């Protein structure tokens, strides 16, 4: 099977625009492996040749998911094929800061800054950072969606962000350095120094400097 055949079977359901196909609800028969590798640098390589059609890559990415055993696959309602991923299937390539709307306190509750009429004065809310992946996904770092550190094929521990269907995005090198400019340091219980920043009031980890390396 070749990548284009998958899209032919899906028809309009793999369209570039509109909602994502509900791949989490599809449970077809496993049809083996496809010679398709997503390289750590974001290239999609089929049978040793990079796929040069950005639209084809994007549409395939919309029908990809990660299985409970950690494997990656492309899915249609009728079949499922396993593919290989060197590191993470997506790269986070851009970011922006989104200002939250000021919160309000319900009427009848007394809070600092509350007016005589019972209406709370708008209180500043924590900013939220959002990432954009190489396939156009927007990932807001809020709630339980946070950066975590994981090991790369090169043995480095670098940030990743959850995207969808069990898939994650590794921070592109350029974006990583941009976010380092926003980073602050926090000392951990073991004396190591953590690098990160705040989003939605939660700590977003970018890296760790060991106390041993800091002493040298």
From TrEMBL:
Signal sequence annotation: none
Residue ranges of domain DUF1285 in the record: 21-87, 130-203
Extent of Low complexity compositional bias: 102-115
Superkingdom assignment: Bacteria
Pfam family, one: DUF1285_C
UniProt cross-references to InterPro entries, sorted A to Z: DUF1285, DUF1285_beta_roll_sf, DUF1285_C, DUF1285_N
Disordered as annotated region, ranges: 98-123
Name under which the protein is recorded: DUF1285 domain-containing protein
Organism: Cobetia marina (Deleya marina)
Lineage per the UniProt record: Bacteria, Pseudomonadati, Pseudomonadota, Gammaproteobacteria, Oceanospirillales
């Amino acid at each position: 099977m070749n990548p284009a055949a998958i899209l032919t079977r899906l028809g309009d359901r793999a369209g570039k625009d509109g909602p994502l196909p509900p791949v989490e609800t599809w449970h077809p028969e496993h049809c083996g492996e496809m010679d398709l590798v997503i390289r750590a640098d974001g290239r999609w390589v089929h049978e040793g040749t990079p796929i040069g059609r950005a639209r084809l890559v994007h549409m395939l990415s919309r029908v990809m998911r990660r299985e409970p055993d950690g494997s990656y696959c492309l899915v249609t309602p009728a079949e499922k094929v396993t593919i290989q991923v060197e590191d993470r299937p997506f790269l986070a390539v851009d970011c922006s800061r989104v200002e939250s709307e000021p919160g309000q306190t319900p009427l009848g509750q007394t809070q600092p800054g509350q007016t005589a009429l019972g209406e709370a004065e708008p209180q500043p809310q924590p900013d939220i950072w959002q990432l954009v992946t190489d396939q156009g996904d927007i990932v807001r770092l809020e709630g339980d969606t946070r950066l975590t550190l994981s090991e790369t094929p090169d043995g480095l521990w670098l940030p990743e962000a959850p995207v969808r269907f069990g898939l994650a995005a590794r921070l592109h090198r350029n974006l990583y350095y941009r976010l380092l400019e926003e980073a602050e340091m926090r000392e951990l219980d073991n004396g190591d120094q953590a690098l990160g920043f705040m989003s939605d009031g939660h700590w977003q980890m970018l890296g760790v400097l060991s106390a041993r390396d800091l002493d040298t």
